[in-house]
């Protein structure tokens, strides 16, 4: 089960608006009049990669338990019992009211972590109410505008220590207990897209894998227009295991300036959508033409979309000066795609079948790294070692403090580093962290995202 986060507060403070913001849909009715929400509503929320179930509740009113408002309050009380965290919402423009103080006193008797949220804090009108919220006893309140989406990043900072680490450890424990079965069930067929310039041999390569002329091929460039998906089972010769793959053939991508035909533009757009659908993308090069600028642009697009990328050099059976060609392409990829180190590169032949099994085996390994989650404890042990080996600089004598790191998501792996003065951290040190994550934690060859987050100063005028 995902962690459960309950939204609680008096009527008309914006609880349902916050609920809609977190689930990304207008599921809960919202109106200026108080008391619109009566029943608890649950929704799946995602906040910067942190997944949880959010529960919207009726406004808390001090009424007789037998009345409708009293029964609504009872529903709220019951939902708090099973929650992993509570968002206590006040109206920053109205300030802390006696009813807010009553709710706070009740929450302090409950066994649930509480985050105070000062909603409607956009502009300066909510400053006074924000400062009053410190007196509620739940630490630094989060200044938020649920209607406009302001302060959502600060809400993530407040929620992660309460539910994020526990969720990561829970997922790690589940994977350890279910290993092989869970991997097959969760991962499903490997979604493998073949991309590249026209006439690189993409359709011919897929036909060779399938052992049949499933896709139309020929010497003319641009035969493929639609992105074609074919389900197939590949036999791993080293283990004898049959592994499901969904192969996706795409149209060739030429330079944008050369694409003038409307149909070709649609084909290229369809190929880019196929990249979004894929898990692992093979950039197919033509050994007779080497690595060109357009190939680097295609590779950069794949990485920007967060897909796992590998490079295959086709027509290897007719390549000249094969060894120098291979080394030259690898060096050019290192220089041209500095955002991802250690891209797998394979020499293949769609005509003879050379190198295809090795490429497919590596594709499954690459997906595993792309989907990998590092337990929080192990991640922070690496983080401490990395900081000790290379401490962050102190620009202009001001110390940059890196406190801890969490993994916010996978596919691609995303990490959040928390600390102070992170806006002063040099880009070179960010690259050091990313490269160290890849080398030490098994993320070679996959895009890694690192986000820096500093706590917001409530007294800042910015």
TrEMBL record:
UniProt-listed Gene3D superfamilies: 3.30.300.20, P-loop containing nucleotide triphosphate hydrolases (3.40.50.300)
Domain EngA-type G as annotated: residue spans: 3-167, 190-371
Keywords annotated in UniProt: GTP-binding, Nucleotide-binding, Repeat, Ribosome biogenesis
PROSITE patterns listed in its UniProt record: G_ENGA
SUPFAM superfamilies for this protein: P-loop containing nucleoside triphosphate hydrolases
Top-level taxonomic group: Bacteria
Residues that hold GTP 2 according to the record: 196-203, 249-253, 314-317
Binding site for GTP 1: 9-16, 56-60, 119-122
Quaternary structure, from the entry: Associates with the 50S ribosomal subunit.
UniProt-listed NCBIfam families: GTPase_EngA (TIGR03594), small_GTP (TIGR00231)
PANTHER family, alphabetized: GTPASE DER (PTHR43834:SF6)
Role of this protein: GTPase that plays an essential role in the late steps of ribosome biogenesis.
Stated name of the protein: GTPase Der
Source organism of this protein record: Tsuneonella deserti
């Amino acid at each position: 089960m995902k962690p459960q986060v309950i939204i609680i507060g008096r009527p008309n403070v914006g609880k349902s608006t916050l609920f809609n913001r977190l689930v990304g849909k207008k599921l809960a009715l919202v109106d200026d009049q108080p008391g619109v929400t009566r029943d608890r509503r649950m929704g799946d929320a995602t906040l910067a990669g942190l997944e949880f179930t959010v529960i919207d509740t009726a406004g808390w009113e001090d009424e007789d338990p037998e009345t409708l408002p009293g029964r609504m309050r009872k529903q709220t009380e019951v939902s708090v019992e099973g929650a992993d965290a509570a968002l206590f919402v006040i109206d920053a423009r109205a300030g802390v009211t006696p009813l807010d103080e009553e709710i706070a006193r009740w929450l302090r008797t409950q066994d649930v972590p509480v985050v105070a949220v000062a909603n409607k804090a956009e502009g300066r009108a909510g400053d006074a109410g924000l400062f009053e919220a410190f007196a509620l006893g739940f630490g630094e309140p989060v200044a938020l505008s649920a209607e406009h989406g302001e302060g959502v990043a600060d809400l993530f900072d407040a929620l992660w220590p309460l539910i994020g680490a526990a969720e990561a450890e829970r997922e790690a424990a589940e994977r350890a207990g279910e290993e092989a079965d869970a991997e097959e069930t969760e991962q499903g067929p490997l979604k493998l897209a073949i991309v590249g310039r026209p006439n690189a041999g993409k359709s011919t390569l897929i036909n060779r894998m399938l052992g049949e002329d499933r896709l139309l091929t020929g010497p003319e460039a641009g035969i493929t227009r639609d992105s074609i998906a074919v389900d197939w089972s590949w036999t791993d010769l080293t283990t004898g295991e049959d592994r499901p793959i969904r192969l996706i053939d795409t149209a060739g991508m030429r330079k944008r300036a050369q694409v003038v035909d409307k149909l070709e533009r649609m084909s290229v757009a369809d190929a880019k959508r196929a990249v979004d659908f894929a898990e692992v993308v093979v950039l197919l090069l033509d050994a007779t033409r080497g690595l060109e600028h357009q190939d680097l642009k295609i590779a950069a697009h794949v990485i920007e979309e967060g897909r796992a990328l590998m490079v295959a050099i086709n027509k290897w059976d007719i390549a000249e000066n094969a060894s120098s060609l291979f080394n030259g392409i690898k060096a050019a990829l290192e220089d041209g795609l500095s955002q991802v180190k250690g891209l797998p590169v394979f020499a293949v032949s769609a005509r003879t079948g050379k190198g295809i099994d090795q490429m497919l085996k590596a594709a499954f390994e690459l997906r595993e790294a792309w989907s990998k989650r590092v337990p929080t404890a192990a991640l922070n042990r690496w983080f401490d070692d990395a900081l000790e080996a290379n401490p962050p600089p102190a620009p202009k004598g001001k110390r940059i403090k890196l406190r801890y790191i969490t993994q916010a998501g996978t596919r691609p792996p995303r990490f959040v580093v928390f600390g102070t003065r992170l806006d002063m951290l040099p880009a070179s040190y960010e690259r050091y962290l990313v490269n160290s994550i890849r080398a030490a934690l098994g993320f070679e060859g996959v895009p890694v995202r690192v986000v820096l987050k500093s706590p917001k100063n409530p007294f800042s005028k910015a």
